[in-house]
Each structure stands twice: as C-alpha cells, then as structure tokens.
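ok so for the tutorial part 2 we go from a plain amino acid sequence to predicted structure tokens. step 1 is just haveing the sequence, like this:
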Amino acid sequence: MTVQARRDVFQAIADPTRRDILSLIAHQSLNLNAIAEQFDVSRPAISQHIKILAECGLIIIREQGRERYCELQPQKLEAVSDWLKPFHKRWEYNFNKLDIVLRKMKPTKKTKK
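step 2 — the prediction. this is what the tokens look like for a chain of 113 residues:
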C-alpha cells in the first residue's frame, strides 16, 4: 500500500499560476472556464492546479447547475501568515532602526536672526 504525502499550503502557493488563481478568486467565486480563460495554458493544466488548491483546502469547489465554481478559503492562508510573522517582526525592527538613522541625518532648519 502506497501512502501519498498530503499536500500543504506552502506547496500550493509555491507555484505562480496557483497564486494567480487565488488572486483571481479572492473577491468573487469564478467558474473553471472563467479561470482558465485568464491563463495561456491548457484547461487540463488549470484543472490540475485547481485540484491541488482544493486538496490543500485553499479553495472549495461548489457545483451550481452544470457549472463548478471555485471559492477561496482564506483562513487556510493563516499558516503562511503565522510562518511569516518572525520575518515581519525582523524587517519592522530593521526599518525602525533605519528611521532613527535617517532622522539623525536629516538637516535641521536654522532660523534667521
């Protein structure tokens, strides 16, 4: 019996096409054809990307009549946000230090007597 490794959110967002698909459906659900029309790749390739996104829980596919619509599940991106927090804190610290240096370098206005 072969055990297939479960995909995770990081694998899903590693691909630029999948990130673009997530951006497309961030504000509204779209059917598979509407998504595929936005890319210069085959429909089966887009279907494979969507399958991976669904396996990771980043999207759900909802059937409405004969159409299949993709909806973003943004809460699944919290894992990425949590992973990025230490980096964000580090950059914020560095930018704050840069602000201090720049303020010290800024020439002060001298008043005329």
